[in-house]
Amino acid sequence: MTKVIQPGEKSVLIEALKQGEVVSFPTETVYGVAVKFNDRAALDKLMEAKNRDYSKAVTLMLSHREDIGKYAEIDDRVEKVAEAFMPGKITLVLKRKDSVDPAMTNNLPTIGIRIPDSPFVLDLIDKAGPLLVTSANISGGCNTTNEQEVLAQLDGRIALVVAGETHNTTASTVVNMSDGQLKILREGEISLRDIEEVLSK
Hints:
It is built from 7 helices and 10 strands. The protein is of the alpha/beta class.
């Protein structure tokens, strides 16, 4: 059975992550499920909990823009987009650095990176370290906006869920910039036109 904790119990959440558990919490978009980055066993548990296909990678959440270059190849265009929209509701798919364990991207040559505009999640990342995060649902299921909706899909499959509510049912925009091109893989509130305007300046 999944334990429900309060936002003030962040130390419990951090300890669970460090122990390799799968946890869920609200972001500024929808609820996410997360494990610590660089923990292969924890990533396997997350994939199993969601019934997620291994052909799909899981987004890396960071708390600072300057950390993006530790995990992905970046150029001036990437830096422009990151500066304009991060923290925020955007995920950048970039070329994975060779130093990153391929298992962390399910052997894909790219890595999705997001910096959330959520003080709670940013503080969590600062204290627990980078996280692999995806939407808190069974793959193909509806996005979740409170702990009850998370439990309806994932109860018993994850260790903890933080009580709360998000006021947004739209996930982040996902844009592929890994090959010098600009391709929207999933459109959220940030549109292709918004990104093109930033790059045209």
